[in-house]
Hints:
Strand content of chain B: under 5%
Number of strands of chain B: 0
Distance between the termini of chain B: 28 Å
Order of helices and strands of chain B: HHHH
Number of helices of chain B: 4
Structural class of chain B: mainly alpha
Radius of gyration of chain A: 26 Å
Low-confidence stretches of chain A: none
CATH superfamily of chain A: Immunoglobulins
CATH class of chain A: Mainly Beta
Shape of chain B: elongated
Mean pLDDT of chain A: 79
Number of helices of chain A: 2
CATH topology of chain A: Immunoglobulin-like
Largest sheet of chain B: none
Helix content of chain A: 25-40%
Largest interface: A-B, 31 and 38 residues
Strand order of the largest sheet of chain A: 4-3-6-7
Radius of gyration of chain B: 16 Å
Oligomer: heterodimer
Strand content of chain A: over 45%
Mean pLDDT of chain B: 83
Helix content of chain B: over 70%
Order of helices and strands of chain A: HEEEEEHEE
Distance between the termini of chain A: 91 Å
Amino acid sequence: MASKMNLNNLLTAALAVLALLSAGSIVLTTENGTQGLRAVLSVQLELSNLELREEGDPEVFVTFRLKNGSAVNVELETFDVYLYIDGHYVGTSYIPFAKRSVDGSEETTMDFVIPISPARSQFFEEARQKEDFSWFVRGKAKLLLPSFKQETWLYVREQWTGE
Amino acid sequence: MSERTRAIANSVFCGIILANLAICSSPSFERFAPFAMTATWLFAGAFMCGSILGITLDDAKAIFYGLCSMALIAVLIFSGVLIFIARLNDIPSYDLVSLLAFQQSFVRFIFIFILGGVGASIATLLKLFFSGGL
Lengths: 163, 134
């Protein structure tokens, strides 16, 4: 009976030590997860260039810069770009980046060619008659976070004045 | 230490150990856990913890409640950590994460309970066999 009690106490003590180590591991995992996700959410997307080219049909070249300020790699799945001139929608572009990876602490640029939609060219022509007109670019990127293996969306809305 | 105190203490300790195994073997925490493990570790852990409950407790009802408490504590800690990280970082679709946590937790609860039960049953049978009660 006494030996059984000793065995029980010994097992409980062993469990207590394992539970203590496990609790430490849980705290460490939570801390790592929190820091990792905060870093990943610091990924920034910005419009770095917009250029109109009128050789043949008018096209707009748009360049975005994606800065990955985190220490982990992120994957860019898709990117949609919508272009507006003086508030009127004139064209769109879509690039499915098949698992394009951006390493930690690196940046990458993405170029888009947006043809002015023929159905919307009247807004383009009207705006060109004015001295001052503005472009408005709206971008939507689907980003895969490494942690939860789930998608998150990055949105960019930027104004660009003149040509 | 009384039987009741030992039963509660063992269930809580086993729950914490299994929560850690569930976290370390979850794909969601793969990159963050100090020791990335496979699901086999969780199954083996559940079996081991169930066996310990079977060895240390004599009453079948106490073993059943112990298994329930152990599995419940494990999944509560597991889903709590998952939801905590998601909400703290203001992930837009945290409701999805909550749902995911619920599904993952439910599956883990079932696995832990069943494997723990198998371990406890084997331990009880062996205990009875060696004590001459079988």
